[in-house]
């Protein structure tokens, strides 16, 4: 019975996500006008490679096409649909950090949400994908929980959150814009929470997700400007950082 109920809600949730992300606001459009997501999405490749501080500083002065040309020559590439494929040792990275130069891949997080919802991405891997907008988190002062973050994605407040959380290994959280967060992640281990229904300040909730204190078997994609990567590395375990850049000879599909 649980599976049927959960599957029914997943269909409802997927339809809601499709409607929410199929169009986006465009700065170049007329006031109140939205554009189709696919028309504004730039196809990308993933460059997996660690870089030095000097290289990241150089990135600040470089952007767009030139930056992509440089980086695609420096490391092997993969595609978005392969991010959670097992590596040569059979390990699947629990956290993917998507970083890149300003102006590159701004719609990627929403594109992942949409393509999952229409059945084109991560179907066998994730039952649910949730989007967390760091800019919106900055604007709120009230305490919340991981369950509250999930509900914000849902079409109503009657979502079976307790049932969704029973399979954390089938959940993906996309945390978009880490570099925009305006609070400290210097949280002691004792301050972190393991209960997804426990209400805490946003810094504690996100730190608990990043450090795998809560929903330890879930998966994360964190998007950030490269200038904030050091803070991520300082406070959180990042087993397999990946970098996202514009693809000049972009593939026809992910």
Automatic annotation (TrEMBL):
Subcellular location: Cytoplasm
Top-rank lineage group of the source organism: Eukaryota
Principal location listed in the UniProt entry: cytoplasm
Gene Ontology CC: one annotated term: cytoplasm
Gene3D superfamilies tied to this protein: P-loop containing nucleotide triphosphate hydrolases (3.40.50.300)
Pfam families the UniProt entry points to: FISNA, NACHT
Organism: Chelonoidis abingdonii
Record-annotated membrane-spanning stretches: none
Keywords: Cytoplasm, Repeat
Designated name of the protein: NACHT domain-containing protein
Domain NACHT residue range list: 94-228
């Amino acid at each position: 019975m649980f599976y049927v109920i959960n599957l029914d809600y997943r269909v409802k949730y997927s339809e809601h996500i499709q409607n929410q992300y199929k169009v986006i606001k465009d700065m170049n459009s007329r006031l109140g006008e939205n554009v189709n997501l696919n028309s504004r999405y730039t196809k990308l490749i993933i460059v997996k490679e660690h870089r030095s501080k000097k290289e990241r500083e150089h990135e600040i002065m470089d952007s767009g096409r030139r930056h992509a040309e440089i980086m695609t020559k420096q490391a092997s590439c993969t595609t978005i649909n392969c991010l959670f494929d097992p590596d040569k040792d059979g390990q699947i990275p629990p956290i993917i950090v998507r970083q890149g130069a300003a102006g590159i891949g701004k719609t990627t997080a929403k594109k992942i949400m949409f393509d999952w919802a229409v059945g084109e991405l991560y179907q066998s891997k994730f039952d649910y994908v949730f989007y967390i907008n760091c800019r919106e988190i900055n604007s709120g002062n009230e305490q919340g929980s991981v369950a509250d973050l999930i509900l914000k994605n849902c079409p109503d407040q009657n979502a079976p959150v307790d049932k969704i959380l029973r399979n954390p290994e089938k959940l993906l959280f996309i945390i978009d814009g880490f570099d925009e967060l305006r609070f400290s992640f210097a949280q002691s281990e004792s301050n972190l929470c393991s209960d997804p229904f426990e209400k805490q300040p946003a810094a504690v909730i996100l730190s608990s997700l990043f450090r795998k204190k809560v929903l330890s078997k879930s998966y994360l994609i964190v998007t950030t400007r490269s200038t904030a990567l050091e803070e991520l590395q300082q406070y959180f375990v990042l087993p397999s950082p990946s970098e996202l850049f514009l693809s000049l000879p972009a593939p026809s599909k992910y």
